[in-house]
Amino acid sequence: MRKITLLIILLSFAGWGQITDADSLINSPWKTSGKFNFIFNQSSFTNWTAGGESNLSGTALVNYDINYSKGLWHWDTKLLAAYGLIKIQDDTFEKKTDDRIEIYSIVGKKGEGNWYISSFFNFKTQLTIGYKYSKNSEGETIRTEFTDFLSPAILSSGPGFQWKKNANFNFNLAPATSRVTLVSKRFTATRENYFGVKQGETSRYELGFTGSGYLKFEAAENITVEQILHLFSNYLDNFQNVDVDYSLNIGLKINKYLDTSIMGQLIYDDNAFAGLQIREIFGLGVNFLF
Question: Does the predicted model carry a pTM greater than 0.70?
Protein backbone atom coordinates (compact mmCIF):
# COMPACT_ATOMS: atom_id res chain seq x y z
CA MET A 1 0.00 0.00 0.00
CA ARG A 2 2.86 2.35 0.86
CA LYS A 3 4.46 1.84 -2.56
CA ILE A 4 1.18 2.51 -4.37
CA THR A 5 0.85 5.73 -2.35
CA LEU A 6 4.30 6.83 -3.48
CA LEU A 7 3.33 6.38 -7.13
CA ILE A 8 0.25 8.54 -6.50
CA ILE A 9 2.49 11.22 -4.97
CA LEU A 10 4.64 11.26 -8.10
CA LEU A 11 1.52 11.62 -10.23
CA SER A 12 0.44 14.59 -8.14
CA PHE A 13 3.51 16.54 -9.26
CA ALA A 14 2.10 16.44 -12.80
CA GLY A 15 -1.17 17.97 -11.68
CA TRP A 16 0.64 20.63 -9.69
CA GLY A 17 2.62 21.60 -12.78
CA GLN A 18 -0.52 21.97 -14.89
CA ILE A 19 -2.16 24.27 -12.33
CA THR A 20 0.97 26.40 -12.06
CA ASP A 21 1.17 26.94 -15.82
CA ALA A 22 -2.54 27.70 -16.11
CA ASP A 23 -2.33 30.40 -13.46
CA SER A 24 0.95 32.00 -14.56
CA LEU A 25 1.01 35.38 -16.25
CA ILE A 26 2.09 35.57 -19.88
CA ASN A 27 4.80 38.11 -19.11
CA SER A 28 5.94 36.54 -15.86
CA PRO A 29 9.70 35.97 -15.41
CA TRP A 30 8.80 32.51 -14.08
CA LYS A 31 8.62 29.58 -16.48
CA THR A 32 7.70 26.01 -15.56
CA SER A 33 7.77 22.81 -17.58
CA GLY A 34 7.97 19.13 -16.89
CA LYS A 35 7.38 15.56 -17.89
CA PHE A 36 5.78 12.59 -16.19
CA ASN A 37 6.83 9.25 -17.64
CA PHE A 38 5.70 5.72 -16.81
CA ILE A 39 7.77 2.86 -18.22
CA PHE A 40 6.30 -0.64 -18.29
CA ASN A 41 7.98 -3.98 -19.03
CA GLN A 42 6.48 -7.47 -18.97
CA SER A 43 7.71 -10.92 -19.97
CA SER A 44 5.74 -14.17 -19.75
CA PHE A 45 6.83 -17.78 -20.32
CA THR A 46 4.69 -20.93 -20.31
CA ASN A 47 6.29 -24.32 -20.98
CA TRP A 48 9.14 -22.50 -22.71
CA THR A 49 11.87 -25.11 -23.30
CA ALA A 50 14.63 -22.53 -23.82
CA GLY A 51 14.04 -21.25 -20.29
CA GLY A 52 12.97 -17.93 -18.88
CA GLU A 53 11.21 -16.40 -15.89
CA SER A 54 8.02 -14.37 -16.10
CA ASN A 55 8.44 -10.87 -14.71
CA LEU A 56 6.61 -7.59 -14.41
CA SER A 57 8.15 -4.18 -13.84
CA GLY A 58 7.21 -0.53 -13.87
CA THR A 59 8.96 2.79 -13.26
CA ALA A 60 7.40 6.21 -12.67
CA LEU A 61 9.49 9.33 -13.24
CA VAL A 62 8.98 13.08 -12.82
CA ASN A 63 11.35 15.60 -14.40
CA TYR A 64 10.24 19.15 -13.54
CA ASP A 65 11.90 22.52 -14.19
CA ILE A 66 11.22 25.91 -12.59
CA ASN A 67 13.09 28.82 -14.18
CA TYR A 68 13.30 32.51 -13.31
CA SER A 69 14.98 35.11 -15.50
CA LYS A 70 14.85 38.88 -15.13
CA GLY A 71 17.51 41.49 -15.78
CA LEU A 72 20.93 40.27 -14.73
CA TRP A 73 19.56 37.41 -12.62
CA HIS A 74 18.46 33.87 -13.33
CA TRP A 75 17.37 31.07 -11.00
CA ASP A 76 16.97 27.51 -12.31
CA THR A 77 15.60 24.60 -10.29
CA LYS A 78 15.24 21.00 -11.42
CA LEU A 79 13.27 18.32 -9.58
CA LEU A 80 13.88 14.66 -10.38
CA ALA A 81 11.87 11.91 -8.73
CA ALA A 82 11.64 8.24 -9.69
CA TYR A 83 10.37 4.98 -8.28
CA GLY A 84 10.40 1.55 -9.92
CA LEU A 85 9.71 -2.07 -8.98
CA ILE A 86 10.26 -5.47 -10.59
CA LYS A 87 8.62 -8.76 -9.60
CA ILE A 88 10.08 -11.99 -10.95
CA GLN A 89 7.69 -14.93 -10.78
CA ASP A 90 9.63 -17.24 -8.48
CA ASP A 91 11.31 -14.58 -6.33
CA THR A 92 10.13 -14.12 -2.75
CA PHE A 93 10.36 -10.33 -2.85
CA GLU A 94 9.75 -7.61 -5.38
CA LYS A 95 12.86 -5.48 -5.90
CA LYS A 96 13.46 -1.82 -6.70
CA THR A 97 14.78 -0.77 -10.09
CA ASP A 98 14.84 2.93 -9.22
CA ASP A 99 14.31 5.07 -6.13
CA ARG A 100 15.48 8.65 -5.91
CA ILE A 101 14.58 12.24 -5.17
CA GLU A 102 16.91 15.01 -6.27
CA ILE A 103 16.58 18.78 -6.24
CA TYR A 104 19.23 20.91 -7.96
CA SER A 105 18.89 24.68 -7.76
CA ILE A 106 21.28 27.37 -8.96
CA VAL A 107 21.04 31.17 -8.91
CA GLY A 108 23.32 33.38 -10.96
CA LYS A 109 24.08 37.04 -11.64
CA LYS A 110 25.38 37.82 -15.10
CA GLY A 111 29.01 38.77 -15.56
CA GLU A 112 31.14 38.86 -18.72
CA GLY A 113 29.88 37.01 -21.79
CA ASN A 114 28.16 33.76 -20.85
CA TRP A 115 29.65 33.70 -17.33
CA TYR A 116 27.65 34.19 -14.13
CA ILE A 117 28.57 34.51 -10.47
CA SER A 118 26.57 31.65 -8.99
CA SER A 119 25.49 29.76 -5.92
CA PHE A 120 23.98 26.27 -5.95
CA PHE A 121 22.07 23.87 -3.71
CA ASN A 122 21.70 20.13 -4.24
CA PHE A 123 19.67 17.60 -2.23
CA LYS A 124 19.54 13.83 -2.80
CA THR A 125 17.81 10.96 -1.03
CA GLN A 126 15.45 8.06 -1.71
CA LEU A 127 11.79 7.27 -0.99
CA THR A 128 11.69 3.85 0.66
CA ILE A 129 13.77 1.18 2.40
CA GLY A 130 16.53 -0.39 0.32
CA TYR A 131 17.59 -3.98 0.96
CA LYS A 132 20.59 -6.23 0.47
CA TYR A 133 19.64 -9.74 -0.59
CA SER A 134 21.33 -13.02 0.34
CA LYS A 135 20.62 -16.73 0.91
CA ASN A 136 20.20 -18.42 4.28
CA SER A 137 21.48 -21.89 5.18
CA GLU A 138 18.36 -23.45 3.62
CA GLY A 139 18.88 -21.64 0.32
CA GLU A 140 15.98 -19.23 0.86
CA THR A 141 16.26 -15.59 -0.15
CA ILE A 142 16.44 -13.20 2.79
CA ARG A 143 16.82 -9.43 2.86
CA THR A 144 18.44 -6.95 5.22
CA GLU A 145 17.62 -3.25 5.46
CA PHE A 146 20.50 -1.14 4.17
CA THR A 147 19.09 2.30 3.28
CA ASP A 148 15.93 4.31 3.88
CA PHE A 149 14.32 7.71 3.34
CA LEU A 150 16.83 10.38 4.46
CA SER A 151 19.42 7.68 5.11
CA PRO A 152 21.51 8.66 3.38
CA ALA A 153 20.51 12.22 2.53
CA ILE A 154 23.16 14.38 0.90
CA LEU A 155 23.04 18.18 0.94
CA SER A 156 25.57 20.23 -1.02
CA SER A 157 25.87 23.99 -1.51
CA GLY A 158 28.44 26.59 -2.36
CA PRO A 159 29.39 29.70 -4.34
CA GLY A 160 31.02 29.49 -7.74
CA PHE A 161 30.98 30.42 -11.40
CA GLN A 162 28.55 29.24 -14.05
CA TRP A 163 28.94 29.23 -17.83
CA LYS A 164 25.51 29.19 -19.44
CA LYS A 165 24.88 29.26 -23.16
CA ASN A 166 21.18 28.52 -22.66
CA ALA A 167 18.86 26.41 -20.51
CA ASN A 168 19.98 23.26 -22.36
CA PHE A 169 23.75 23.74 -22.19
CA ASN A 170 25.58 24.93 -19.09
CA PHE A 171 28.10 23.96 -16.43
CA ASN A 172 28.94 25.21 -12.94
CA LEU A 173 32.21 25.24 -10.97
CA ALA A 174 32.03 25.57 -7.17
CA PRO A 175 35.50 25.44 -5.54
CA ALA A 176 34.23 25.94 -1.96
CA THR A 177 31.40 23.39 -1.67
CA SER A 178 30.09 22.26 1.70
CA ARG A 179 28.59 18.78 1.65
CA VAL A 180 26.77 17.08 4.54
CA THR A 181 25.78 13.41 4.56
CA LEU A 182 22.96 12.56 6.98
CA VAL A 183 22.11 8.98 8.03
CA SER A 184 20.01 7.16 10.59
CA LYS A 185 21.82 5.97 13.70
CA ARG A 186 20.23 2.53 13.35
CA PHE A 187 22.42 1.93 10.30
CA THR A 188 25.67 3.17 11.89
CA ALA A 189 25.22 1.39 15.23
CA THR A 190 26.91 -1.79 13.96
CA ARG A 191 28.89 -0.47 10.97
CA GLU A 192 32.34 1.11 11.12
CA ASN A 193 31.75 3.09 7.94
CA TYR A 194 28.34 3.84 6.44
CA PHE A 195 28.46 6.17 3.41
CA GLY A 196 31.51 7.78 5.00
CA VAL A 197 29.80 8.30 8.38
CA LYS A 198 31.63 6.77 11.34
CA GLN A 199 30.11 4.15 13.63
CA GLY A 200 27.51 5.55 16.02
CA GLU A 201 27.36 8.96 14.33
CA THR A 202 24.63 10.47 12.15
CA SER A 203 26.43 12.92 9.87
CA ARG A 204 29.61 13.70 7.98
CA TYR A 205 30.87 17.10 6.80
CA GLU A 206 33.02 17.55 3.70
CA LEU A 207 34.58 20.61 2.07
CA GLY A 208 35.55 20.29 -1.54
CA PHE A 209 35.24 21.12 -5.22
CA THR A 210 32.07 20.52 -7.25
CA GLY A 211 31.67 20.52 -11.01
CA SER A 212 28.23 20.11 -12.59
CA GLY A 213 27.14 20.04 -16.21
CA TYR A 214 23.89 19.78 -18.16
CA LEU A 215 23.40 19.12 -21.88
CA LYS A 216 20.16 18.45 -23.75
CA PHE A 217 19.77 18.26 -27.53
CA GLU A 218 17.88 16.58 -30.37
CA ALA A 219 20.14 13.93 -31.90
CA ALA A 220 17.67 13.42 -34.77
CA GLU A 221 14.00 14.00 -35.46
CA ASN A 222 11.97 12.78 -32.45
CA ILE A 223 15.13 11.65 -30.60
CA THR A 224 16.09 13.69 -27.50
CA VAL A 225 19.28 13.17 -25.51
CA GLU A 226 19.74 14.56 -21.98
CA GLN A 227 22.97 14.29 -19.99
CA ILE A 228 23.58 15.34 -16.37
CA LEU A 229 27.00 15.19 -14.67
CA HIS A 230 28.04 15.90 -11.07
CA LEU A 231 31.63 15.67 -9.81
CA PHE A 232 32.86 16.17 -6.23
CA SER A 233 36.31 15.99 -4.64
CA ASN A 234 36.80 16.30 -0.87
CA TYR A 235 39.70 18.52 0.21
CA LEU A 236 39.67 17.01 3.71
CA ASP A 237 40.02 13.31 2.81
CA ASN A 238 41.43 11.54 -0.27
CA PHE A 239 41.22 14.52 -2.61
CA GLN A 240 42.26 12.30 -5.55
CA ASN A 241 39.08 10.19 -5.20
CA VAL A 242 36.53 12.07 -7.31
CA ASP A 243 32.86 11.16 -6.81
CA VAL A 244 31.06 10.83 -10.14
CA ASP A 245 27.32 10.81 -10.85
CA TYR A 246 26.47 10.69 -14.55
CA SER A 247 22.98 10.21 -16.03
CA LEU A 248 22.01 9.66 -19.67
CA ASN A 249 18.36 9.81 -20.77
CA ILE A 250 17.35 9.12 -24.37
CA GLY A 251 13.75 9.50 -25.54
CA LEU A 252 12.56 8.19 -28.91
CA LYS A 253 9.16 9.79 -29.51
CA ILE A 254 6.47 7.60 -31.08
CA ASN A 255 3.54 10.00 -30.73
CA LYS A 256 2.24 12.61 -28.28
CA TYR A 257 1.78 10.12 -25.45
CA LEU A 258 4.17 7.23 -26.17
CA ASP A 259 7.91 6.99 -26.45
CA THR A 260 10.72 4.51 -26.00
CA SER A 261 12.99 5.47 -23.12
CA ILE A 262 16.59 4.48 -22.51
CA MET A 263 17.99 5.58 -19.15
CA GLY A 264 21.43 4.90 -17.75
CA GLN A 265 23.25 6.03 -14.64
CA LEU A 266 26.87 5.57 -13.58
CA ILE A 267 27.99 6.36 -10.03
CA TYR A 268 31.40 6.18 -8.41
CA ASP A 269 31.50 6.98 -4.70
CA ASP A 270 34.02 4.99 -2.65
CA ASN A 271 32.18 5.88 0.56
CA ALA A 272 29.13 3.98 -0.69
CA PHE A 273 30.75 1.18 -2.70
CA ALA A 274 34.34 0.44 -3.74
CA GLY A 275 33.62 0.27 -7.46
CA LEU A 276 31.32 1.45 -10.23
CA GLN A 277 27.56 1.41 -9.76
CA ILE A 278 25.73 1.04 -13.08
CA ARG A 279 21.99 1.12 -13.75
CA GLU A 280 20.14 0.85 -17.08
CA ILE A 281 16.42 0.88 -17.92
CA PHE A 282 14.88 0.37 -21.35
CA GLY A 283 11.17 0.26 -22.07
CA LEU A 284 8.04 1.71 -23.59
CA GLY A 285 6.96 4.88 -21.82
CA VAL A 286 3.66 6.73 -21.42
CA ASN A 287 4.23 10.51 -21.25
CA PHE A 288 2.36 13.50 -19.88
CA LEU A 289 3.94 16.87 -20.68
CA PHE A 290 3.06 19.96 -18.66
Answer: yes
